[in-house]
Design brief:
The protein is an alpha+beta fold and 940 residues long. Helix content is 47%, strand content 21%. It has 30 helices and 30 strands. The strands form six sheets. Strands 22-23-25-26-27-28-29-30 form an eight-stranded mixed β-barrel, surrounded by five helices. Residues 930-940 have low confidence and may be disordered. The structure holds ligand C2E and magnesium ion (2 copies). One magnesium ion binds at residues 825-826, 846, 882.
Length: 940
């Protein structure tokens, strides 16, 4: 078994090993040590006890010997008495148990010894305490060896004379035997205990009394022999010790500690080993599982090894199943993602269908697949673009199916199993049969509840619900619906983004594309190319007066007319509002003819019938030629626009080719705007006043404030030039406010003097009137300046009023209610819808100069002037003629009962001071000549 390094790196292994150490190895080691100690102790006790037992045996044996010796002695004494041989001398040689037997007199003399030794007095004294016929043991120092004593029996005679005591020295060998009888490894010693001292009686070897206590219990044992009862003597002590002591190592050897420990270690090793084996068995599958899980994280779904039938094997099998399932899901997701990516990035329906079929083929290679994209619907048929897979290759087939067949497929809903056959009436069944299948599964694919495609999956054998992953097929098929819907939606968006909603013509975006293509074409073929910018004249007025719906219809009609005048290769685009742009390319072999412009103008000029009304139109056209007037689309359009602007300036209803000088004018406009922004701050504006004269009295009835601008670099700029630019640039409100305030201040000053009934007229632009704060500003200016409202008149252009907007109407009434008078400037030039005159709170009509110009010496009649004067009279309005330059005009107007005139004939616009001077001079219109004319007219 191989244990890899990783095996020990495993945290679980480490934890189990630590657990094992604390739970098994440590206690086992402790148990081994403790039981070893216990066994040592038991063995030691046992050995000690055996020595004690031996001591006891020796001691008891000695005691038995002593008892027998005493019996023998007493028997002998009794026998000698029977013989009445008081003098009988007891011979020790007859008694080997005794060395010597002596009789001792009462005074202690040993009667049987030659030397007649005497017993020491203190000993004798002791002996006297012995009862008659009682035998006691006494220890007497050995005559040979002073270090040990010899054992004696002392018996008291029942008489004191001739002797009082028997004394018998007991043979030591009789009591203890020969030293050689004792085992060699043991040393046995016997002592009499005397208080705290020991008197040696016998030793089989060396006397070890002095170091006996130092010996370990295993090596020594002792027994105390009680002699008090039998022999009235002090006890004896038998000590045994080993001559060859048992040492620690001997004991270990004896117990077998090494083996014991070895067995312990071995068993521990075995425990460890078996545990490791078990751990390995557990951890290897676990590691495999971990490894497998990591691999899944890296997208490797290789199954992990499964062995045995443990829970881990079950887990590994489950893991492999799970991994296979995830892989399958992942494959599905990846294929979905690839398909979705394709859908998002290319919107290529065919490509997506191919990917889907490939995926289906991966899921079930044995089936034949067909996905049909229903492309074009006619009343009876549907054109289908089909992608088919046979056994390997994908191919495309175009089929035409009847609406009825498609309807049947639609009814398959969430999938239907069918049979296919070569004789089938239905094309889809027949084609699947031709592909070698007998059974098919039909799945319609929907977009916005409409069938847009369908899937056919065919097989030779019968198909059923449980066979296949139909749900996955449905998911995949739904993507066909998505891509078709996305493609159609994009086409719709593209159309919406590139075409104008109203007219259906290409819009700016598509125009730029087409223009770029046309430029490339022109560049390659060296054919000329024109950008024609068309603006309908006075369309704004039509829109304002007729309403937006009318305006929209007119624009659509004009768009169609323009298209009808061009070829398919040309582009007619709606550029915005009432502006159209045509990109016109030269034909093969011929350049663009000017006649095309006339054709366009004629087409626009034809009367149009919209909402049952006839309307006449004209247009202004600007032309930029590629590449002379610009080498990029934006410049060409801009220059054509500039040229169109010029055509407008030149009185509309004409066309103009772009010239560089026109571009310079546009640049000047930009410069003008920049300078105008600072003009107020720099006090560059002033006001001039042009008097209005009453034709009846010849007196100055009012003054019109006219703005003047003098700039350092531009010099004097006419209001006809800068006012429209200010309106365009959004500067008119601040400029207009300044004019109003300045005029009111200056006139208030005049009024303080003598000209209290003078009416001051201020021109107000249409843009000013749309300012929500206009009325408030007006009020505050009146309050600030102190000018009375009835002395102020606002001159409005006709177009403002023609809009007829309720908001404007409301404002005009509000102005009127302040007491301010309202006048229509340049009357007659606007679009001729006079109905507004009834509803508007107007005081004065100011006839435009262009009509006054028609009054000349040669012409006795100026019908429009007459008409306007009559109109004013009928409407009870004051009427004034502007731009009166000649006496004839003044006369004519006087005769025709115009109320007032204004013009160079009486006075040009004057500075404030000049005006004051004029007023002071009380200049009047010379009336006498007028009277003549009047008379003349009357006579006529
Ligand atoms: P308008 O209000 O119709 O003013 C009359 C214009 O005709 C003035 O030109 C005036 O100087 C000029 N004029 C007067 N009598 C004669 C004449 O006998 N013969 C000729 N040929 N011209 C005559 P002006 O001052 O250049 O103003 C042009 C236009 O600019 C004004 O036409 C008005 O629409 C606008 N305007 C002038 N001042 C202001 C202003 O303060 N605010 C606004 N919104 N527009 C103003
Ligand atoms: Mg005016
Ligand atoms: Mg005017």
């Amino acid at each position: 078994m191989q244990i890899s390094e990783k095996f020990f790196n495993s945290k679980t292994t480490q934890q189990i090993a630590i657990l094992l150490f604390f739970a098994a190895v440590l206690p086992a080691a402790l148990l081994t040590i403790l039981s070893n100690q216990k066994i040592s102790q038991i063995v030691s006790n046992y050995e000690h006890q055996s020595l004690v037992e031996k001591s006891r045996t020796y001691a008891l044996s000695a005691f038995a010997n002593l008892t027998f010796a005493r019996s023998t002695l007493e028997h002998d004494i009794a026998a000698s008495r029977k013989l009445n041989t008081q003098s009988t001398k007891l011979r020790p040689n007859d008694y080997p148990m005794f060395n010597v037997i002596n009789k001792v007199s009462i005074d202690g003399v040993m009667l049987d010894s030659k030397e007649k030794n005497t017993i020491p007095a203190e000993l004798l004294q002791e002996w006297l305490s012995i009862e008659p016929n009682q035998t006691r043991i006494f220890m007497l120092p050995s005559t040979k060896d002073q270090t040990h004593a010899t054992v004696h029996f002392v018996r008291r005679n029942d008489k004191l004379v001739p002797f009082a005591f028997y004394i018998a020295e007991i043979n030591t060998n009789y009591i203890w035997g020969q030293p050689s009888d004792y085992p060699e490894d043991l040393n046995i010693c016997a002592y009499q205990l005397n208080n705290n001292t020991k008197t040696k009686i016998f030793c089989s070897g060396e006397d070890t009394s002095s170091r006996f206590k130092e010996l370990t219990p295993i090596n020594a044992g002792a027994w105390e022999l009680f002699l008090g009862a039998e022999f009235h003597s002090n006890p004896w002590l038998v000590e045994i010790h080993r001559t060859i002591p048992i040492s620690e190592s001997h004991l270990k050897e004896y117990i077998g500690t090494t083996a014991y420990i070895s067995v312990g270690i071995l068993s521990l090793l075995l425990i460890g080993l078996f545990t490791l084996i078990q751990l390995r068995k557990t951890m290897v599958p676990m590691e495999n599982l971990v490894e497998g899980t990591k691999k899944i994280g890296h997208g490797d779904f290789t199954p992990i090894e499964v062995s045995g039938n443990s829970e881990f094997s079950v887990l590994a099998t489950a893991f492999n199943n799970m991994s296979a399932h995830i892989k399958q899901q992942l494959d599905t997701l990846q294929s979905y993602s690839a398909i979705d990516k394709e859908i998002i990035s290319t919107l290529d329906v065919q490509r997506v269908i191919q990917l889907i079929i490939q995926r289906m083929k991966e899921i079930n290679p044995s089936l034949v697949y067909l996905i049909a994209n229903l492309e074009e619907h006619t009343k009876s048929d549907v054109q289908c673009n089909c992608t088919v897979t046979g056994h390997a290759v994908l191919s495309s087939v175009r089929l035409v199916m009847s609406q009825q067949e498609i309807k049947e497929i639609r009814q398959a809903g969430r999938g239907q199993f069918k049979r296919s056959g070569l004789s089938s009436q239905r094309i889809h069944e027949r084609i699947m049969a031709e592909l070698g299948t007998n059974h098919i599964w039909v799945l319609p694919i929907f977009w916005q509840d409409e069938i847009c495609a369908f899937l056919l999956a065919g097989s030779k054998t019968e198909l059923n619900q449980k066979d296949l992953r139909w749900d996955e097929f449905k998911d995949l098929s739904s993507r066909v619906g998505i891509v078709i819907s996305a493609q159609r939606r994009e086409q719709k968006l593209l159309t919406e983004a590139q075409y104008d909603n109203l007219t259906g013509l290409p819009n700016r975006i598509l125009l730029l594309d087409r223009l770029k293509l046309a430029m490339e074409h022109s560049h390659k073929t060296s054919k000329s190319m024109w950008v024609i910018f068309i603006d309908l004249d006075r369309f704004k007025d039509v829109n304002d007066s007729m309403g937006h719906a009318f305006g929209d219809a007119l624009l659509t009609e004009m768009g169609q007319r323009l298209t009808s005048q061009t070829r398919d290769t040309d582009t007619v685009a709606r550029f915005g509002g009432d502006e159209f742009v045509i990109v016109l390319s030269g034909d093969e072999g011929e350049d663009i003819q000017l006649s095309v412009l006339n054709r366009i103008m004629d087409a626009i000029a034809k009367p149009a019938y919209i909402h049952n009304r006839e309307i006449m139109n004209t247009c202004s056209i600007g032309i930029a030629v590629y590449p002379n007037d610009g080498d990029n689309a934006e410049t060409l359009i801009k220059n054509a626009d500039i040229a169109m602007y010029r055509a407008k300036e030149l009185g509309r209803n004409n066309y103009q080719f772009f010239k560089q000088s026109l571009n310079d004018r546009a640049a000047q406009r930009m410069q003008m705007i920049t300078l105008m922004r600072k003009a107020l701050e720099l006090n560059e504006f002033t006001l001039h006043y042009q008097p209005k004269v009453d034709l009846k009295t010849g007196k100055i009835a009012g003054l019109e404030a006219l703005i003047r601008w003098e700039n350092e670099s531009l010099g004097k700029v006419s209001p006809s030039q800068f006012i429209p630019v200010a309106e365009e640039a959004g500067l008119i409100n601040s400029i207009g406010e300044w004019v109003l305030r300045t005029a009111c201040v200056q006139m208030a000053q005049c009024q303080q003097g003598q000209y209290s009934d003078l009416l001051i007229s201020v021109n107000v632009s249409a843009k000013q009137l749309t300012d929500v704060n206009f009325i408030d500003k007006l009020k505050s200016i009146l309050v600030e300046t102190g000018l009375k409202a009835q002395h102020l008149e606002l001159e409005l252009t006709e177009s403002i009023l023609m809009k007829g907007e309720t908001n404007i109407l409301y404002k005009l009434h509000a102005i009127k209610s302040l007491g301010i008078q309202l006048s229509i400037d340049d009357f007659g030039t606007g679009y001729s819808n006079l109905s507004y005159l009834h509803t508007m709170p107007i005081d004065t009509l100011k006839i435009d100069k262009s009509f006054i110009d028609t009054i000349s010496l040669n012409k006795t009649k100026a019908p429009i002037v007459d008409t306007i004067i009559n109109l004013a009279k009928n409407l009870n309005l004051k009427v004034i003629a502007e731009g009166v330059e000649t006496q004839e005009q003044a006369n004519y107007l006087k005769v025709h009962q115009c109320d007032q005139i204004q013009g160079y004939y009486f006075s040009k616009p004057l500075t404030c001071n000049e005006t004051k001077a004029l007023l002071d001079s009380d200049k009047r219109l010379s009336l006498p000549k007028l009277a003549l004319v009047e008379n003349k007219q009357q006579s006529l």
